[in-house]
Amino acid sequence: MRLPSSLSGKRRGESWRTADEWLKSEISSSSCHVQDFDPTSPHDEAMSIETSTETASTSDRVHDWRKAGEAWGHSADDWAYLYEHYSLDVMIAIFQRVGMTEGLRVLDMACGSGLAVRHAQAMGASMAGIDAAETLIEIARDRSPRADLRLGSMFELPWDDGSFDAVMSINGVWGGCEPALEEASRVLRPGGMIGISFWGTGIPIDLRACFIAFALHAPQEHFGSMKKLNNIAAPGVAEQMLAGAGFEVLERGARVSVVEWPDAELAWRALSSVGPAVPALRHTDPAVVKSAVLEAIDHCRDERGAYRFQNDHHFVIARKAD
Ligand SMILES: C[S@@+](CC[C@H](N)C(=O)[O-])C[C@H]1O[C@@H](n2cnc3c(N)ncnc32)[C@H](O)[C@@H]1O
């Protein structure tokens, strides 16, 4: 996929918007049927949730958490060291709101390589975490040896009822993950707090062009499942999911997630470490995917050649009833 030369180059004023609109029109005119793919979801394919029909209920969905973990863990060091800090702004907001403090018993669902676990522990919290990716959990354990970090699925949490004062999930809960919220409620004590984050749909949303590039280079049969999960980004959906799991919703907030890379090579290593890159990398020559992704994020590059990748990032805070 090539952007017209008039749309590539450095970010100037609103030029990124033009590039984004071009990408959308490129996709809608594409013969590869990605019109319904919402590229703002980094979980889509990697979550490996399949439905028998477009309107299948959550209970009809089959989630292969090991497959999701393999995808998310395929390039664990690059994820942990080059990308994972994307969440710092919402992480701080969630920590403040759940009252992160000395002795608070906290579970991080889909904790990845454990950046949030490490920072919460530094604030004195007693930390537990679970993730589907073995390679990411290994890094999390190296970082936080005292934390209770498990390989497994957030759909079946291996902790007793009422074990935690707070649960968080940084971009780990998506549309279709309602059972994970029910599990979160079960392991929370009455009155316990939950904070979840996910990508918004507002501006800036640099990852959209990047994920469109991944989608255009993935096998066509993946597109159906790729569009399923991002409905959590729609206004009110996360609140509905939390309320459906019995929580009292307290607040929605937004931050701008910012990740910076000094050059194109590191930008590519970071972006290609995400789970949804895997179908494209397996289906298409990685050099071709790399070139498409770098073109898609060219608007993020400044005059020194460094990248500033920015995205609308939302969080919702809720409380379990007493
Ligand atoms: C977008 S990453 C977020 C990771 C981490 N919270 C962070 O912000 O860096 C999504 C994570 O969800 C994990 N995941 C996917 N399905 C899961 C499941 N059923 N149970 C636990 N973790 C899961 C993946 O392995 C991956 O680490």
Series of secondary-structure elements, N-terminal to C-terminal: HHEEHHHEHEHEEHEHHHEHHHE
Major beta sheet summary: 7 strands, mixed
Share of helix, binned = 25-40%
**% residues in beta strands:** 15-25%
Cofactors and ligands: S-adenosylmethionine
Instruction: Sum up the overall morphology in one term.
Output: globular
Q: What's the CATH architecture name?
A: 3-Layer(aba) Sandwich
CATH class category name: Alpha Beta
- Counted by DSSP, the helix tally is 14
Overall number of strands: 9
How many domains? The number is 1
CATH H level, superfamily name = Vaccinia Virus protein VP39
Strand order of the largest sheet: 5-4-3-6-7-9-8
Topology:
Layout: H1 15-28, H2 44-47, E1 49-50, E2 62-63, H3 65-72, H4 76-83, H5 88-98, E3 105-109, H6 115-122, E4 126-131, H7 134-143, E5 148-151, E6 164-170, H8 178-187, E7 188-199, H9 207-216, H10 223-226, H11 237-244, E8 247-261, H12 264-271, H13 278-283, H14 286-296, E9 307-320
Parallel strand pairs: 3-4, 3-6, 4-5, 6-7
Antiparallel strand pairs: 1-2, 7-9, 8-9
The structure holds S-adenosylmethionine (SAM).
S-adenosylmethionine (SAM) binds next to helix 3 and strand 4.
